[in-house]
Structures are given as structure tokens and as C-alpha cells.
Amino acid sequence: MRTGARSTRGAAALVGLAVLAAVTGGALGAPAAAEEGTPPGRVEFPTHCLPPQEAGLPPAEGPTTARITVDDPAPKAGDTVTVTYQLASTPAANPVPGVLPADVLTPTGRVVLGGAQQGEVTVVGAQRNDPVAAGEKLPGVTMTGTFTVTAPGVITLAPGGYTLHTRHLGDLDTVCAPAAPAPVSERLTATPLPTANLRTLALRSAYGNPGAAVAVTGVGFVPGAAVTVAGRAGAAETADRVAATADATGTVRAELPVRDRATTGVVAYEGTGWSAQRGSGVAAYTVIGAVAGPAGAQKVTAVVEPGALAMTQAGDSVTLGGVPYGDGGTAPGRIAAVTVTDARGGPAGWSLVGKVTDFTGPGGVRIPGASLSWTPSCMAAAGSPSRCAAGSPGAVGAEGAVLASTPDAAVVGGTFTVDAGVRLRVPPYTPPGAYTAVLTLTLS
């Protein structure tokens, strides 16, 4: 959307976002310490280790004892989880003929994801070890890494292969792989991002005589759902009601006869009653009509015409801060400010919802849209009847999140400035370059 462009209620504004550089890196951990007993999640699996050719040693066969832990066992889709892979013991031996000095061993490995999310997590450990005598087993190590949760459900984590790199008398790699898939060591249960309610309602006319039928159009409903269109007086429903069905696009069209003089608005909802999750906001409606007066009297009626719910935005592009390659980090920025004007009258509040696509970079490399989070803010102009509530800080993602809203109330309306700081988590070792996505803002 161009700067200053105006959007009617229910329409969407598009904002391009770009991050100029990418980076990552797993946190480095200390070697695993000896533990008494058997910690939860510790598993053992047969392992085949190939020593470096320069060592002249035969392959080593034997059990690996390992444990995987996570920093958050109940994340939301879009969250970043830190994974720790601890090797308590390995069949791999010192690959040099003499004593292996201290702090020359660097481990790397893989954690295998299963269940609701498939894939692997790369983990890395610090260059740290005690001296190892000739022919002795290499010591236990700790490796860490991160991954972004992309799907809700139970995700399993199992140990994968690992490489023990030593820098003494040359660079030597001992490569170890499970002889069979290792047992699951850890599980986490991811919950989906909350889904924004995009149900909205529009009336052909905002007023009419008692008994007049008002044309109602609703969008954002579940396709094929049974929908009730009803009159409202404050928080209560009136006697005006009609049934409708959403079409294949989720659109509802109905004619509602408004006979109850108490009706001050119209709502539409799925299910047995209106709720904030399955119902539209209130569209204001006024019942007018002739009132008997004394002989010779004339009734004088002035109608205040309701306006529109609309928004403008200060720009149509956002450039996030750069992230140096190899260090890992977060790309910060701020969306173009949005001005919401509510001149409808009546009791209906509004909601401004954002959704973001994946970030696409060089060679089609993607950063999930759920890696973008924001901290919204909202300010009402002086004299605005409604109070403005900023959305909760957190991930945006493709499912959508609320940027700002105003509640239903007896008197609503006003002008509001909406803003948000944004941060993009860039995954490990993302190739350098510009990564772009589209943030869509929908006002309803």
C-alpha cells in the first residue's frame, strides 16, 4: 500500500519487510559432568566410530550413552528452542599416539527430530577437555544448538551422529554414527499460534423504520457454517433474528427485519450464541419512526450519518537491522505507523490483525514467518471515546496475531495511532543476503 492510501474495514494493507544479513550459531556448552544415578532421558545405543586415517587405528564399536534436554518443553509454534546433547560416554578413543593435551577437542553432532516436526538440529560444543592418555576413551562432551518450532504437536528428539575433532599433531576427525536409530531421549509438546478472528459484518444501511429489512453481509466465517444474524442492544440480543449459511468463501448474506425498537446493532455468529472467538463485531443500527404528536405539530428528525472504519499507514516497506554472518542474533526494526479512524458510531469495536509470510532470500532459502515477533503499541487521540488496547507481544506468523483493538462499548469511535517494534530471529548459518517477506494488516 502506498503511503497515505486508505483502506475500508475488512481490507488488508501490505508491508514489505527485509533483513539485510543473516547469521547464526549454537550456544557452546561445558563438558558433561558426572552424575549420580541415571538422569531422566539418558539413553544408550550401539555406535560405530571411524578414527582418522592418519591415526592408523581400527574402527571402534561400542555403546554411546547420551542425554538430550530442551530449555522449553511446551513451546508455541514459531518459538526457538535450545537443545542440549550430552555425551556421557563414547567408544571413540584418543587418535594420537601420546597424551592428548587439554582443550583441543571440539565436538559437533546432530539431534534427530520426529513426530509433528521432522528434521535435524546441528549442535556444537566448546573446545574443552581434560588430557587423555594414549589409547584411552575420549571424554564426555556437551553440545548445544537451536531450532524453530514450525508445527504444533508432540516432537521427539533422539541422538544422531557426532564428530569429535582434535587439533593436536594435525586436524583429526573421529566420526561416530548410531549402528541403528537411537532411542528417543526427549519430547516436547508444541501448541499452535492463536488464530485471529477475522469475522466482520457490514450493513447496507445504518438506520431504518421499524420492520424495515436491512441487508447484511458478513465475511471470514467458516465455509458452509450455519450462522445466526441477530439484533443487539448493548451486550444483550433483541428479538430480531434470522438464520443464514456461509458460502464456500465464508461469506454470509442475509436480510434482517428489524422490528424491535431496542435494537442498536447487528451481529453474526456461528454456534448457539455469540462469542469473541466465533462471532463478528457489532455493526451499529438505529431504529427510527414516526411518533404521534399534538395537532399541528411537526416532527423534525436530523440523522447523523455514520462514517467508515478505515486506516492509513505511513509507508509500505520496513528494513530490519543487519545481523553479522556467523555470530547469530536478532534483526530489529519497526513497522510503518498505522492510523485507524473509526467514524461508524454505535457499539462496535474493531481489531487490527497482522499476518506475515516466510522470509525468502538468496537461492530460495527461507526463514519462517513465525520467527518474526512484535511488541505492539496503540495510542488514542484526544477526545476519542474508545480506549485502544495494544496486542500481546509475541510471534506474528502465518496464522496471524492481534496488533491492536478497541472493545465493544456503549459509545465508541475515535482516531488511533498503532505501532510495533519487530524482531526477526535468524537461524544458524543462514547464507548472507537480503531476506524479504510480506506483512498483511487487516482491519475489521
Automatic annotation (TrEMBL):
Keywords: Signal. It comes from the Bacteria. Residues 1-29 form the signal peptide. This is Beta-xylosidase. It comes from Streptomyces cirratus.
